[in-house]
Amino acid sequence: MVSIKIQGLQEKTQLKVETTQSSFIKESYSAEEKDFMGVSAADNFFPLQKSRPERCSRIREEKLQFYEIVQGSVIYSAFLDYRFKDQTFIRMISIFPSYSESPQMYCHFLDLRTEEHFTSVVEIEELGTNDGFTFQGYLSSCDLPDEIDSYTLCSVNVSMEPESFRQTDENTKQIPLHVSEDQPVDTETYGLCIPPISGEISAGRLVEFLELSEILGVSHFVFYDANLSDKTLRVLQYYQEIGAVTLNPWALPQNIASNIQDDGQTVALNDCLYRNIDRFKYVAFNKLEEFIVPLQSKRTLEIFETESDEDTAGLCFQGFTFDTSKFEEKRPHILLYTQRYAARTKAPTEESARCIVSPKNVFSLELNAISNPSETFYITRNVETSVGHVFRYGECNYDECNSSFQDLTMVKYREELEKRFNLTMIYLQQYRVV
Question: Pfam families under this entry (predicted)?
Answer without folding.
Answer: Glyco_transf_92
